[in-house]
């Protein structure tokens, strides 16, 4: 498929120039090539009728709130067809400019192929987009938008509902009374006033839970390594480290996204760090808790109670030990299930779809628009470099430090007009935000996402002498006003600083802090600050080799012989905790950090 610009991806051809023209003026071959001949003639007749109508057609495949539907009908022809099979959806989609679904409709590659290029927007009424094939959508020039904010209050309220009902054994007592029992002494609860609530993840929902918990007289702390401290202070919340939150909390409320870093973040090891008798609420994602470990913690009395709205597998099995545990309150993923939230989601998704059909850039887009092939081909390795530098830099930030300011420096021999850095900036934002968030970042929503999170991005260009054959000589990323878990990454002026360049089409990591290194940005990376002395490369290499960890690259940067040096080691496999501890125990190693690229 030919590359598509943002404007052509989202615009409506001829509509403004001549309202009598349809969205398509003829039946293209791609529209009919996959259809049986007898159906082609019927559809051509339908198409002629539709050509007389200036409005786009939007297929609503699952129930949507009435307010959203009314708004949509003012702009488009609306076809509400529910419970469609995949075959029926593929048949209908060729006559539609947009599609709105919830979580029950699978928008597969076959759907996009069946659209014949007409489908321009898919709207997901909710947050998750795992039922939409994003790669296929992008390949076919179709924008995918979601509705991530409308259910914030509903999710927060459900979190508080679970918190209070758990503390007073409401669900268990209700079941007992309905069974004909009257066990007042068995269901004595605990008070919330004066208790410490740890909010794990201080985003939209987490901050709303904190506000409500403060109103209940609770002392609220929060852990979110990338939340601005001033935003937390405005709510009257103290940001603390992960371990401090676990050790001091009477109640823990989870509001973190499910990412590789947060998968099973509550496990046997972390439960052991908690105050005995802690109570846990989860209205975020089921996968952030190791459910088997939670059962063990409940049985051991480490966790007194848990109130869960989400699970690793939904619905969970009927005989699940977790669901059947007497100290667990469970609800069937009701976080967004209020009448108001459903209406809000409907309005939010309709506004996003209508805006996209009008040619406006959608702030809630979750896939990237197509980029001209020649531009993408030239920038491809630099795009990879930009994202990985962002990922590397944010992983160097110590917990508790809110990332507020990122400075990007581009060094190039090209004039500013010959180098469009928007895609590179978007990829750096993607690298900084996605490792610690469930947000999908692309060229469309990068700046909006950064602004929403209080992240200020500044860019600087250094014009170099020489041939402008290559777009860039190097990219440098700096994060200011933060602490680093690897002190050697700090520049002389006090910022975390990483730098990289493209060599023979491969992104390379070339500088950390004041130390020059040179490793390919593949796999993962171990950075070690050491005393510069003979045998260090062999010692570290032997430890990794003995643990069957393959080393792909190794580079040492030093300030002077026999002084301090930084060793950068590229590895194909993730070293075990024991292996990393052995490296840290080497007397000449002063500090080290493991980073996923």
Observed structural traits:
597 residues; 34% helix; chloroplast; ACT_dom
Assembly state here? single chain
What portion of the residues fall into strands of 2 or more residues? 15-25%
pLDDT < 50 stretches: 1-52
Radius of gyration from CA coordinates: 27 Å
The total strand number stands at 22
Number of helical stretches of at least 4 residues: 21
Q: Biggest sheet: strands, sense, closure?
A: 7 strands, parallel
Distance between the termini: 31 Å
Kindly state the mean pLDDT as a whole number? Answer: 85
Query: Helix fraction?
Result: 25-40%
Using the alpha-carbon principal axes, give the shape.
Answer: globular
- Strand numbers in spatial order across the main sheet: 8-7-6-9-10-11-12
Question: What structural class should be given to the helix and strand makeup?
Answer: alpha/beta
Structure write-up:
The chain is α/β, with parallel strands linked by helices. The protein has 21 helices and 22 strands. Strands 8-7-6-9-10-11-12 form a seven-stranded parallel β-sheet, with helices on both faces. It has a six-stranded mixed β-sheet with strand order 14-13-15-16-17-18, with helices on one face. Helix 11 links the parallel strand 7 and strand 8. The N terminus is likely disordered. This is D-3-phosphoglycerate dehydrogenase. Its EC number is 1.1.1.95. It is found in: Plastid, Chloroplast. Keywords: Amino-acid biosynthesis, Chloroplast, NAD, Oxidoreductase, Plastid, Serine biosynthesis, Transit peptide. Its main location: plastid.
């Amino acid at each position: 498929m030919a590359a598509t610009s943002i404007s052509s991806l989202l615009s409506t051809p001829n509509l403004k120039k001549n309202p009598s023209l349809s969205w398509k003026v003829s039946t293209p071959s791609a529209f009919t090539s996959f259809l049986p001949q007898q159906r082609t003639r019927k559809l051509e007749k339908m198409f002629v009728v539709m050509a007389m109508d200036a409005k786009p057609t939007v297929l609503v495949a699952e129930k949507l709130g009435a307010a959203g539907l009314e708004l949509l009908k003012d702009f488009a022809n609306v076809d509400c067809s529910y419970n469609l099979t995949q075959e029926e959806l593929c048949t209908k989609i060729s006559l539609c400019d947009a599609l709105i679904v919830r979580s029950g409709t699978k928008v597969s590659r076959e759907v996009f192929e069946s659209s014949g290029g007409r489908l321009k927007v898919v709207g997901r009424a909710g947050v998750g987009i795992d039922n939409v094939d994003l790669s296929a959508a992008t390949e076919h020039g179709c924008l995918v938008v979601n509705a991530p904010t409308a259910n914030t209050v509903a999710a927060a309220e459900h979190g508080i509902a679970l918190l209070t009902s758990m503390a007073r054994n409401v669900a268990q007592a209700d079941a007992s009374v309905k069974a004909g029992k009257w066990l007042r002494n068995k269901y004595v609860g605990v008070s919330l006033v004066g208790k410490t609530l740890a909010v794990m993840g201080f985003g939209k929902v987490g901050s709303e839970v904190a506000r409500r918990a403060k109103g209940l007289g609770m002392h609220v702390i929060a852990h979110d390594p990338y939340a601005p401290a001033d935003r937390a202070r405005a709510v009257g919340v103290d940001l603390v480290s992960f371990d401090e939150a676990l050790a001091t909390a009477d109640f823990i409320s989870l509001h973190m996204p499910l990412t590789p870093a947060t998968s099973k973040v509550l496990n046997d090891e972390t439960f052991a760090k908690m105050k005995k008798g802690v109570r846990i609420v989860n209205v975020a994602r089921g996968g952030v808790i190791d459910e088997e470990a939670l059962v063990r913690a409940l049985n051991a009395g480490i966790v007194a109670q848990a109130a869960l709205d989400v699970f690793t597998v939904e619905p969970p099995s009927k005989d699940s030990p977790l669901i059947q545990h007497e100290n667990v309150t469970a609800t069937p993923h009701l976080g967004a299930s209020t009448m108001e939230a459903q209406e809000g989601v409907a309005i939010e998704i309709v506004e996003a779809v209508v805006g996209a059909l009008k040619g406006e850039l959608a702030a809630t887009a979750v896939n990237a628009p197509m980029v001209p092939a020649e531009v993408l081909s030239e920038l491809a390795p630099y795009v990879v470099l930009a994202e990985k530098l962002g990922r590397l830099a944010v992983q160097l930030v110590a917990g508790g430090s809110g990332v507020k300011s990122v400075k990007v420096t581009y060094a190039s021999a090209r004039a500013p007009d010959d180098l469009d850095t928007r895609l590179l900036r978007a990829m750096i934002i993607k690298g900084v935000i996605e490792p610690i968030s469930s947000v999908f970042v692309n060229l469309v929503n990068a700046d909006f996402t950064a602004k929403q999170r209080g992240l200020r991005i500044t860019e600087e260009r250094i014009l170099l002498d020489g041939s402008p054959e290559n777009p860039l000589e190097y990219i440098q990323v700096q994060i200011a006003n933060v602490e680093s878990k690897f002190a050697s990454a700090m520049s002389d002026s006090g910022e975390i600083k990483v730098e990289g360049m493209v060599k023979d089409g491969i992104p390379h990591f070339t500088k950390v802090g004041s130390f020059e290194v040179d490793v390919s940005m593949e796999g993962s990376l171990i950075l070690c600050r050491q005393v510069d002395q003979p045998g260090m490369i062999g010692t570290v290499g032997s430890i990794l080799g003995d643990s069957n960890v393959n080393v792909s690259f190794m580079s040492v940067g030093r300030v002077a012989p026999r002084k301090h040096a930084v060793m950068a080691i590229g590895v194909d496999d993730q070293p075990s905790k024991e292996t990393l501890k052995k490296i840290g125990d080497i007397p000449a190693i002063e500090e080290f950090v493991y980073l996923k690229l």
